[in-house]
Design brief:
This protein is of the alpha+beta class and 315 residues long. The protein contains nine helices and 14 strands. Helix 1 runs antiparallel to helix 2 and helix 6 packs parallel to helix 7.
């Protein structure tokens, strides 16, 4: 039974999380928005007929509202006839954007058969993503200069015509300096590197690449989406502290310092990406219609069937 058979349930989970978070748009309380999204998503997962597990998510189990790494999901735990599925999840990507009514907040997840998504602690990840033309042309193994020159050559642009998204963080001072040396158009974002990578992979977008360090769960989610879009993605884990490094050594049966290719982070075609918009951006945000119903727009990528669609639902 393919993962796609659970698509309607997973869509229900992201839509429910998006609606719950949307109630907090502009109220300057990102934690409340995140907590609402988590609980709404969990309540749906509790009813889904599968044997699920959070492969990578917001963190280790504690008192904070989160879908924690290793958390069992679904109504068929331990049933040998159930589909065993791993989930990479962020119930509310861009928490701060909801708090301040900024673009591109989404409820996002990726799903694949058990063991096919990277199972790792909630650490950082150095990332690079781009359009399908840049497969095997850009890499974290290469320096910034090589990647810019290669992308410009392949895309038929001058370096000052390239547009690269980087998260606006102190850790990116050197990367931004290097990009400025090539006169690259840099788009700094506060949050939202899943959307940024999707835009980089989109031939209709003006974004050419995503570069820099973001969260690892979003990296696995992005890798799944870009596998379905045939676009390049690489990630390398970056550890906040020795505790995260030690947990990674326990969880990952491989070199934790390695560069992970897109198809290692999500190693199955039997995979789905779903993102439901909270605030306007790549997808429209949650809104109410004249019938008093919520309208939610979602982006769905079916990796196996190479099906990419934008779906609008009334709830």
């Amino acid at each position: 039974m393919p993962t796609k058979d659970l698509e309607k349930y997973f869509l229900d989970a992201t839509e429910s999380a998006a609606i719950a978070a949307a109630a907090w748009i502009g109220l300057n309380d990102g934690k409340a928005a995140d907590g609402a999204a988590v609980e709404a998503m969990r309540s749906v997962f509790d009813t889904v007929p599968f044997d699920g597990r959070v492969a990578i998510g917001e963190g280790e189990r504690d008192d904070a509202p989160m879908l924690w790494i290793g958390e069992p999901l679904g109504s068929m735990q331990g049933n040998p006839e159930a589909m065993s599925i791993d989930i990479a999840v962020d119930p509310l990507e861009c928490t701060n954007h909801v708090a301040f009514n900024l673009p591109n907040a989404m409820a996002v997840l990726a799903a694949a058969p058990r063991g096919e998504l990277l199972h790792a602690p909630d650490c950082y990840m150095d990332k690079i993503a781009g359009s399908p033309e840049l497969i095997k042309e850009i890499s974290l193994e290469a320096g910034t200069s090589y990647n810019i020159e290669s992308a410009a050559s392949v895309l038929g642009k001058k370096s000052n015509e390239l547009k690269v998204v980087v998260m606006d963080r102190p850790r990116h001072v050197e990367l931004i300096k290097e990009l400025k040396e090539y006169d690259v158009n840099i788009k700094l974002i506060g949050d939202g590197d899943v959307t940024a990578a999707l835009n980089a992979a989109d031939p209709n977008s003006d974004i050419d690449m995503l570069m820099g360090i973001g969260a690892a769960p979003e990296g696995v989610i992005t890798a799944t989406a870009l596998r379905g879009l045939g676009a390049p993605f690489e990630g390398r884990l970056v550890f906040k502290n020795e505790g995260h490094r030690e947990r990674a050594e326990r969880m990952i049966d491989d070199d934790i310092e390695k560069i992970w290719d897109r198809d290692e982070l999500c190693s199955s075609d039997d995979a789905l990406f779903i993102g439901s918009g909270v605030c306007d951006g790549r997808t429209k945000g949650v809104r109410s219609n004249e019938k008093g119903m919520y309208v939610v727009q979602s982006e769905i990528i079916d990796v196996k069937n190479k099906e990419h669609k934008i779906l609008t639902s009334e709830r």
